[in-house]
Write a structure and sequence with these properties.
Blueprint lengths: L1 H16 L31 E6 L5 H19 L3 E5 L5 H14 L6 E4 L13 H13 L8 H12 L12 E4 L4 E3 L7 H7 L4 E3 L2 E3 L8 H11 L6 H5 L1 E2 L5 H4 L14 E2 L2 E3 L4 E4 H4 L2 H13 L1 H4 L4 H12 L5 E3 L5 E3 L2 E3 L6 H5 L31 E2 L3 H7 L4
Bound molecules: guanosine-5'-diphosphate and manganese (II) ion.
Guanosine-5'-diphosphate (GDP) binds next to helix 5.
GO cellular component, one term: Golgi apparatus
Keywords: Glycosyltransferase, Signal, Transferase
Organism: Stachybotrys elegans
């Protein structure tokens, strides 16, 4: 008996060890620049890039404040264009106010206001609407954020599978997603698009955090099954998003039926990149692999029967389709999207050893005696909660 217990324990330890991440010999994802630059203008070397904001007419106040923040902190030096997308026709008020604000910074700018075509927003015909409605009501009763709102599901599906095909974005390769009511809390004095291109990065984020598990019970299983069916090899970033099962071998696979477990019974740790800020290469999403993945997920119906967000879809796709060093953390961009903020932080050598990039809990409010800002002229938000370090530390192990 004791022998079998010992054997099981050894097997569990070996199994868990297969989830350890071999850390690279050097930092594969350092910041492009540290501190303030004398804006690094690259002359003719500009990227084929645009800002994109999805908004409703009633988001006008938040839209204006986000645009002001982006223009003040970055774009008054760089003059990238703006594209605004809406599922409904824009009001004259929205168009006028936004155009006037952008013109204050750049008299020559021509912001684009576009409507999303019906085939990109709304139920596809294979969705059972009664089943969708009752799932939404159930999720709402369980307090899954926004799950009761049909339009939120359409939005997540659009941002997962369609924005990059919108005709207003087709001319561009790179986008920087901006939402209403966000702010950048440091100056950005270099061109992140150009640096992404130069360093062979494809997807950039500022915040990594946990997903609300109840919004995605079957998403990870679906994506893991797709990965297996397409024989996609496992990257360290995929592994970093997982948590090994500590059940003994024969029991382990029974756990496969639990939420966000794969067919072997190991699970997603729910860590993902927050997609309300993204700078990424749309060719990632326009690739046949991503289209195949999105189509597979879309057929399943989980955008409606559950409340799959575009953030976990983008993140798990990046973990599958990119090398971990093609994913960039904008460690020097201060960023607030209520209720959280990311505030640039220089870890101590010891914290760095452990992948630390954000203050440990004790230091989050008061500052750290060895702290030094990575960013430029940061004025971090005094109100928003500083994001916890766990997911950053886990995901960053793949590159540093
Ligand atoms: P949260 O970030 O998950 O709390 O959700 P938000 O309310 O910020 O929505 C995410 C993004 O989608 C924002 O850019 C919103 O403006 C946009 N959005 C959400 N719902 C709709 C909608 O029904 N229509 C349009 N046009 N935009 C939407
Ligand atoms: Mn938002």
């Amino acid at each position: 008996m004791l022998f079998f217990v010992a054997l099981a324990a050894v097997e569990i330890i070996f199994h868990a060890k297969t989830f350890a991440i071999a850390r690279p010999a050097q930092n594969l994802d350092p910041p492009f620049y540290v501190g303030c630059q004398n804006p690094v203008l690259n002359g003719a070397d500009r990227a084929n890039a645009t800002f994109v904001m999805l908004a409703r007419n009633r988001d006008i106040g938040g839209a204006l404040s986000s645009i002001r923040s982006v223009q003040d902190q970055f774009n008054h030096n760089f003059h990238y264009p703006w594209v605004f997308l809406n599922d409904e026709p824009w009001t004259e008020n929205f168009v006028t106010q936004v155009s006037d604000l952008i013109a204050e910074y750049d008299a020559n700018a021509i912001p684009v206001f576009e409507v999303i075509p019906e085939n990109m927003w709304g139920y596809p015909d294979w969705i059972d609407r009664d089943k969708a409605r009752s799932s939404m009501d159930n999720m709402k009763a369980q307090d899954v954020p926004y799950a009761g709102k049909e339009s939120y599901h359409h939005m997540c599906r659009f941002n997962s599978g369609f924005f990059f095909d919108h005709h207003a974005l087709l001319p561009y390769k790179w986008y920087w997603r901006v939402e209403p009511s966000i702010s950048f809390t440091c100056a950005i004095t270099y061109d992140p698009f150009v640096e992404m291109e130069r360093h062979d990065k494809r997807y950039g984020y500022t915040v990594a955090l946990w997903e609300v598990g109840k919004s995605v019970p079957s998403l990870f299983r679906k994506i893991a099954d797709w990965k297996a069916s397409r024989s996609i090899s496992t990257t360290t970033l995929w592994t970093a998003m997982m948590q090994p099962s500590y059940l003994p071998w024969p029991l382990r696979s029974l756990a496969a039926w639990l939420p966000y477990h794969d067919s072997s019974g190991d699970s997603w740790n729910l860590c993902h990149f927050w997609s309300n800020f993204e700078i990424a290469d749309m060719d990632l999403f326009r690739s046949s692999e991503y289209r195949d993945l999105f189509h597979y997920l879309d057929q399943d119906g989980g955008f409606y029967y559950e409340r799959w967000g575009d953030a976990p879809v983008h993140s798990l796709a990046a973990a599958l389709l990119l090398r971990p060093d093609q994913v960039h953390h904008f460690a020097e961009f201060g960023y607030t999207h209520s209720p959280f903020q990311y505030c640039p932080w220089t870890p101590t050598p010891d914290e760095l050893q452990h992948g630390g990039l954000v203050p440990s809990k004790a230091d989050r409010k008061g500052g750290h005696k060895n702290a030094k800002y990575l960013g430029c002229n940061c004025k971090c938000d005094s109100k928003a909660e500083v994001i916890r370090p766990t997911c950053f530390n886990r995901l960053r192990q793949t590159v540093m």
